[in-house]
Amino acid sequence: MRTHVTDHPLIAHKLTTLRDRSTDSPTFRRLVDELVTLLAYEATRDVRVAPVDVETPVAPARGVRLIAPKPLVVPILRAGLGMLDGMVRLLPTAEVGFLGMVRDEGTLMASMYATRLPDDLSNRQCYVLDPMLATGGTLAAAIKLLADRGARDVTAICLLAAPEGLARLEESLAELHLPVTVVTAGVDERLNEHGYIVPGLGDAGDRLYGTV
Ligand code: URA
After folding, report:
1. What region, left, alpha or beta, does residue 188 occupy, with left being phi > 0 and alpha being psi -120 to 50 degrees?
2. Which pLDDT value is given to residue 19?
3. Are 149 and 118 in contact, with CB atoms under 8 Å apart?
4. Is the pTM above the cut of 0.85?
5. How many A from CA of 193 to the centre of ligand 1?
6. Which residues have CB under 8 Å from 167's CB, separation 6+?
7. Spatial distance between the Cα atoms of 131 and 194, rounded to a whole number of angstroms
8. Does the beta carbon of 160 sit less than 6 angstroms from any atom of ligand 1?
9. pLDDT tens digits for 151-205?
């Protein structure tokens, strides 16, 4: 597993406002959207393209185009939904699958309550959206499912990660032999006893959508 922590003052600036408890939901949603587009730029560095010839108004030119099969973007509900628009703005031709996962706040175990994904992901590049890589359980389960369906590689885009979650993810993916990259705006200090990232930004789903 490869972890890429972005190093850019604009990303750091937006992340700081996200962390601030006084940032309201509309501003939080807008900042998540903007941050994801910036992270997506880094996350799609290895997206597959093929050479193509075009005619400019002046002369022939050689360029590249994204190739089939289309990349698949998979937001993990609920909080990953807040990252979807920012991602597809950069990859408008991508297809979108959905995974609904919920964490038991007592045991911190993740369980899946909804799946809407192609059965066959052979040769597909997959981009998983999950804002908080905390214990790593949710992301590990999601990536295993994509691997079982034949994904070619998986890139997870997370706003923040905890060291414990990155270590657990790496350990649980070791047997998969699947190229996995995590792109994140920051690796924080630790997890607290409730499985929250410290200092983190609180509950990303609640800050995006309220406490329903
Ligand atoms: N999920 C969140 O929304 N925040 C955390 O800090 C950990 C898990």
Report:
1. beta
2. 98
3. yes
4. yes
5. 12
6. 136
7. 17
8. no
9. 999 999 999 999 999 999 999 999 898 999 999 999 999 999 999 999 999 999 9
Distance from C-alpha of 10 to C-alpha of 167, rounded to nearest angstrom: 27
In the reported structure, the alpha carbon of residue 58 is separated from the centroid of ligand 1 by a whole-number distance in angstroms of 52
Amino acid at 24: D
Residue 55 in domain? no
Report the distance separating Cα 112 and Cα 146, nearest Å.
Answer: 13
* 37 in a structural domain: yes
User: Is 139 touching ligand 1 by the criterion CB < 6 Å?
Assistant: no
Instruction: Write the residue with the smallest CA distance to atom 3 of ligand 1.
Output: 203
Residue 83 belongs to what domain range? Answer: 2-50+64-209
Q: Residue 57 falls within a domain, yes or no?
A: no
Query: Quick check: 116 and 92 in contact, CB under 8 A?
Result: no
Q: What is the pLDDT of residues 83-142, one digit of tens each?
A: 999 999 999 999 999 999 988 888 878 899 999 999 999 999 999 999 999 999 999 999
Total domains in the fold of the chain? 1
- At residue 169, the 3 state secondary structure works out as helix
Distance of CA 22 to the CA centre of its chain: 25
> Is residue 9 assigned to a domain?
yes
CA distance 42 to 49: 15
Residue type, 138: T
CATH code of the domain covering residue 97: 3.40.50.2020
Residue nearest to atom 5 of ligand 1 (CA): 196
pLDDT at 106: 84
